[in-house]
Request: fold
Amino acid sequence: MNNTIQTNCRYFQNDRPCRYHKSTGVMCGDCQYYSPVGFKMLIIKLDAMGDVLRTTSILQGLKEKYPESHITWITKKESLPLLENNPLIDMTLAYEEDALLVLATEEFDLVINPDASFIGARLAELSKGKKKLGFGFDSKGHVYSYNREAEYWFNMGVNDVIKKANQKTYQQIVLSICQLNCERYDLIYHISPEEKNFAETFRRKNKLKSVDIVIGLNTGAGRRWLKKKWTLEGYSELINIIKKRIPEAKILLYGGPEEIENNKYLKSRYDNLIDTGNHNSIRQFAALIDLSTVVVTGDTLAMHLAVALGKKAVVLFGPTSHTEIELYNRGEKIYSDMDCLVCYRQRCDKSPDCMEKIAADRVFKTIKKLVGD
Reply:
């Protein structure tokens, strides 16, 4: 029996037995699961939640380029659930004391911070990295680009002309920042067996069959960009059309705490709408989205989850950039013909505004196209 402790193994836990010793009793020195870490990477991507999820598109490319790598990802606490069950991430840390201790004590071969945010750039600057990509923070209090490829994203963030002219998706941009070939690497999100059971219980309770056409309506769009929400009138008219033209379809209502009143209103007006609830965890929310055949949503976390889960999606865009969104041929984008789009405004003095101009009949025709005639 070899009692050697192989501390450079990716499964080594420092203060407790690794999962393979626990499950099989194998000794470290003789372990067939031994996987030496040849390259240590740190990814810093704090927010927003949907952006954290779509940044998982860089992981496959990184693993192909650095196959023996160990990846640590620092994000905000609320985004940690989005990285659970991800086989390409070795350690996730919330932006708290533990993360700061890691930055102070560990050295990485590569640090990636693809976000020019005030906090993310400072964390990248604090980190000990042999090579850094993305954005850091200088001693004069300014964000700066570590590499040439990051400059395009930085310029987009501060120049509306460049932002509006851009035709690249976020995935293309962030892969370029990471100096990876711009393949269409997918988002990575895996539903656990427990979460599948949760969704299955909901499915049986609401008598949803595997052959049903299930149309999910995500009526919210988060708190940051209020104008990303489609109108309540739009959803109401869409439900009317669905009930007349696809009467056999099941309609699910999705949303968070901010959508309680809107979803309650819709449910009171129409029979047989199924409310998925407004207090689900992020992981439960994703499992319930997986029940839909097609999801109608704004540019929000539900959209990224639908895409990551391989769902068909009809995505309604207003003030944010539709060109930056990659749907992987799983859906279609709908936006108004207005020259002021990509404004990122919270308020608008135009009437009708960009979201009000999206017609319910247009949304329905897109749903019909995606679910088939």
Q: What stands out?
A: The first strand starts at residue 39 and ends at 44.
